[in-house]
Amino acid sequence: AMAAGWPELEAAARERRRELALAGPAVAERVAAGGGRLPAALLALPLLQSLELSGCAALRELGPGLAAALPALHTLVLSGNALGPAGLGAGLGGPLPALRLLDLSGNGLEALPAALGGPGEAPGGAPAFPQLRSLNLSGNRLRELGPGLARAAPQLQALLLSGNRLRALPGGLLPPAAAAGPFPLLSRLEAADNELEELGADIAALPALKSLDVANNQLRELPAALADCPRLKEANFRGNQLKDKRLEKMVNGCQTKAILEYLRAGGRGKGKAENAREEARKKKREKQQKKDGGDAEQDELEEASKLLVKVLHVSENPAPLVVKASPGVKDVRPFIVCCVLKGVNLKPGNALKRFLTTQTKLHEDICEKRTAATIATHDLQLIKSPLIYDVRPPEELKITPLGRKEIKAKDLLRQLQLEAEEQRKQKKRQNVSGLHRYLQLLDGKDNYPCLVDAEGAVISFPPITNSEKTKVRKDTQDLFLEVTSDTSLQICKDVMDTLILKIAELNRSTLENKEDSGSDNESDALCGPVNLNPRQNAQPMNVPLAVEQVRVVDTDGNLKVLYPSKTDLTTVSSLLTVIR
């Protein structure tokens, strides 16, 4: 009777499941009907190691005894509910000794629950979350944090606080003059999109801090103490109102290392060391007797540090690539955006591997595990134009997927679903993992979408795979990029914008690393020592990638989409200079 109306809980108990995810409108309705509480049957699943309960605007309290009932829990995701500190308090009242990840994002929390060191924290005693590694508190309404968190979760490695109302960081997080350093393992601290006016010098008391994000706040200055964070590698200070204009420029264009060096030297006009260094540089420059003034050179080098992309207009292209969309796609996967990207360099080192990893990351994040949109990248040289975006019945659609033999779409899908199911069983999961959720997008469709080249070969079968025939290789220089979605055209464009930005970033870091061996390439006067012979090596850094517009037309040749149009690539314009 306890589990009435909760078949998921009955199944979990029966199958001795380790994982349980409850989300979506049906769950939200049942929670609301239960007075905004969790069903008691949940407390009868002591084997649970991972519990997700998200997106229930009605969920106001966890109910007492949750911690005591689920001692094996290592992952607890409670995002997008309406859990206040009191509603969390009862459930998180006891210690969760095995918990490693706790996600409380998007709950409208104005204070932390007592168990996490919020108001009413019990003094002394053992930490409530001795194993907690990752705590996500983003998208709440927290104004301040107290020193209790360091006591409650001493092993914390990642603390995510973006999208709150914090005024100061670390603020009250660090206990005053603690004997042992608090948060000895904290390596990732994110507090973008808050109301931060102060970044305190005590940030340097975090010995393991590797990555710091305080973008989009109201910081006027950065403490020199940041340079004393021994492990700080990545820092994002963009979108603040820094008084030091040179620093503001560096924040938008330079590596973290250069910014920290600048802060260590006490900024411009302070610090004797910096002045002495400036003097030495000046003398060297005079010695070289540069013909053009240093200023012009500095501007030029500053420009060189930006990522450049040149848009090649369809009209300038003697043989532009066209994609014809057949009418059938509108019932299956209606939206497609394509373009050509010329001048990528995937030869050196692990550049190709990094390119593929980037694509996987975008699939995970912005594409929502491929369910919102899917990317395919092809070697332009291997594509026979014109292309047709078409639909075919599952038993007629044939493709040679990446790394596999030619196969019918129907069989490929069955194969992939079996593999996903195998993995689910192995891991004792309730649902197929996120990676495989996109396999369900084609369930019950009579036709499958595909991109077919002029020779009739299927080069892409979204959202499942693209083809071995047009696979990107180390020596690929020109790419054909495609993004498809069954959700909206805008998401295709947003994903494509981001994909181009990421490839431009990869391309630049490849060029930088490739030239590293030869000479000091921090040639940007703003971001490091002045390079005395910029002509030699500033040039290749700045060969812009060229994006060629690609049109998608209907069968009568009427334009459906042109990418990139004037309004595209604007979302990434702060990081990318587009020459149109």
From TrEMBL:
Coiled-coil zones: 406-433
Gene Ontology MF term list: phenylalanine-tRNA ligase activity; RNA binding
Biased composition (Basic and acidic residues): 271-281
GO biological processes: phenylalanyl-tRNA aminoacylation
Annotated ranges, domain B3/B4 tRNA-binding: 332-508
Database matches in Pfam families: LRR_1
Protein name per UniProt: LRC47 protein
Lineage: Eukaryota, Metazoa, Chordata, Craniata, Vertebrata
Gene it is expressed from: Lrrc47
